[in-house]
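Example record

The entry below shows one chain as it appears in the dataset: sequence first, then structure tokens.
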Amino acid sequence: MSKPVICIGAALVDELFHATDKIIPASTSDATVTKTAGGVSRNIAHQLALLGVPVQLISVFGNDSDGNWLKQVSTSAGVKLDASLTISGLTGKYTGILNVDGSLFTAFLTNAANHLVTPEHLEKHSDLLQTATVLMADANVNVDTMEWLLRFSKSTGIPFIIEPVSVPPASKLAAVNLDGLYLITPNEDELPVICREPLSSARKHVDELLERGVQNIWLHNGIHGSTIVSKEKTISLHASLVDVLDCTGAGDGSLSGFLLGKHLGKEDMDCLKIAHTLASEILQVNGAIATHLTQEKLMALVPKYFPANE
């Protein structure tokens, strides 16, 4: 059996309130509500499993009905939870308020217990971690956990990826020694807070991360596409125009697509095309997972979004 991708970080219940008309602050708005399985690392693990990639998730679940449901959804998709924790208490929840066009108005994170994924816990499961093809952590985990994973990556040669998640958790990374990190995946809002200096442009921020030893910076620019920068090269790809139903999980999906491409031995540009295709599909469904896609269906969609003659 192939070695797994190991994802470390959040597993949450996503409760999404989708406004049916323009949101007026400090007033009542009509909305529809959906409940889906979420959490950045859990979403990525779930999507990879559906796409036929072996995957382990190291996260924290409560011993409540939400936690039982989250674990059932994850394992049914093919995600293994050998090193995950179940604690006495409530499962974490992400409550998102979405505008009419599916974009995020605001969100709340409650009862997350990602601080319990400690270096000591990972040390106990180092034999499992050594089987990974790639290690991925979201920035919801503590700084000392990310630093432990980076040291582990450097000592084993297993590539390590950090997904910044959003501005507040991303800001923790400014103080982290990122030397040797394989890939970080910020958007335009997260990039400046990862950096130590108040610089004037995205390019200068990227240059700072390269100087700090990050091997690849994958900058997400929303409707303008994304760019991967290393010291050797820069590659960019436009985004496809789609009718957005729900923006939740599109970033998670793009990293899932990229990891699928690496699992299949693809070059970076082909990985980007798979990533953008999967993100585009997720934007058109409710929730953070493209449950309608298999690996074969996704790969068949890539040339439709990105024709070979472009």
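Notes for this example: The first strand starts at residue 5 and ends at 8. Residues 5-23+32-304 form a domain with the UDP-N-acetylmuramoyl-L-alanine:D-glutamate ligase fold (CATH 3.40.1190.20).
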